[in-house]
Amino acid sequence: MSARPHPAQATRHELPPTAGLPLRAGDLFSHGGGLAAGVAAQLGTPPLQLECSGTAALVVSLLALRELAPQRRTVVVPAYTCPLVALAVRRAGLELHLCDLLPDHYDMDPQALAAACDEHTLAIVPTHLGGRVADVDGALEIAREVGAWVIEDAAQALGARHAGESVGLRGDLGFFSLAAGKGLSIYEGGLLTARDETMREALRQSSARHVPASLAWEWRRSLELLGYALLYRPRGLRLAYGAPLRRALRRGDPVAAVGDEFALDIPLHRVGRWRQAIGAHAARRWPDFLAQTQAQAQQRLPRLRAIDGLRVLEDRPGDQGSWPFFMLLMPDQARRDAALAQLWQAGLGVSRLFIHALPDYAYLGDCVPQQDVPRARDFAARSLTISNSPWLDDATFEHICERLQAALR
Ligand SMILES: *Cc1c(COP(=O)(O)O)cnc(C)c1O
Fold first, then answer.
1. Do 203 and 295 have their domain in common?
2. Which of 52, 205, 360, 378 is deepest in the core (most CB within 10 A)?
3. CA distance between the termini of the chain
4. 0.90 cut: is pTM over it?
């Protein structure tokens, strides 16, 4: 394979791995709140509760459920998901159980899920990975049998819909992430809701009891958000994202490269008014941005489907996912790695999602059980992602497709 450099490399641009909404100067000088209310109105959800991260939203949820059913101790999650989910379960003082996946899929295997659940199960967490819509009904069925709740992890799926309705509402609770790189962002934030008003009241109480104000955290997040606003563009990302990525890969640390390494302690604090105002102002552009990225995905999917040996994870009929990036599976790890050798460090928005199945992160040793989860491991070994950022132009997309084709030959 000739390593013909792509024009983007000459211009020192760096594309982000996901389609995030860029901030504008006007966002930083806006007043007024209404972030949660604005997004709820756009999505057509019941009132949303703002927390300081998606992880914090999950912690608040779990603490609320714990109080409703103190005898239940375990939380069942897909074995391939964000390490923060494991840390949230730990922070809530609960025990993690992993569920292996369906073959070639991010969804939990219903049989494995049924086997993982019993009268000790507090919650099941189906996960809308990469903007795709997860099987919530399967989880609900099993949850009802054992008396557990379903929490939809829609951290990566703001704007995704099932049967016309926003994800997060079919289960008992649902949350979205407003972290950097996850679409609409206030650097760190989370939105939480529940179908029933009684549950929403329980969530408000849980938050009031467990989440303090913290000036120190809010200062830190405000500075980080300012940095994000300045650097989240093709030039700035070289410094903020590309350089650390390449450094981490050079020292053979892919976990650090994709940002899978998190502090064990989950901060819980209130979100300040300035960040809320920024989010609310930027959120006005979110529906158009979402529509633009969804249209771009639909336009590019046929090209990906036409690549022999490549599996693209798509929507099931009736689902309309959000498309922060394309999730792809190669036939085996060798070819996935061959493609990444060409593309991962090229600054073109090709990356990996989570590096490992949860049991394989050494730093999570004390909160993740050592279960055998071969399909989750297989998913980790064979998957890669292509950014669906609008900055990734047609020529660059074609260049990536050709590289993938070459790796598959
Ligand atoms: C990012 C993420 C979370 C946590 O959200 P934060 O806002 O980053 O705390 C939870 N679950 C999944 C699947 C995620 O990707």
1. no
2. 52
3. 11
4. yes
- What's the order of all strands across the beta sheet hosting 319-320? 165-166, 161-162, 319-320
From 210, 236, 270, the end of a domain falls on 210
Q: Residue type at 46?
A: P
Tell me the pLDDT tens digit for each residue of 358-404. Answer: 999 999 999 999 999 999 999 999 999 999 999 999 999 999 999 99
Residues facing residue 124 across a β-bridge? 76, 150
- Cβ 82 under 6 angstroms from ligand 1: yes
The total of structural domains in the chain comes to: 2
Whether residue 275 lies inside any domain: the answer is no
Residue of minimum CA distance from atom 13 in ligand 1: 82
What does the angle CA 328 – CA 333 – CA 339 come to, to the nearest 5 degrees? 60
Q: Measuring CA to CA, how many Å separate 103 from each of 34, 97, 366? A: 42, 19, 28
- Give 306 Cα–ligand 1 centroid separation in angstroms: 31
Same domain? 200 vs 302: no
Unique residue bearing structure tokens 């989440």: 211
The whole-angstrom separation of Cα 108 and Cα 78 is 6
Residue 368 is part of which domain span?
7-14+286-408
Pick the residue whose CA is nearest to atom 1 on ligand 1: 155
296 CB near ligand 1 (under 6 Å) = no
Residue 8 confidence (pLDDT): 55
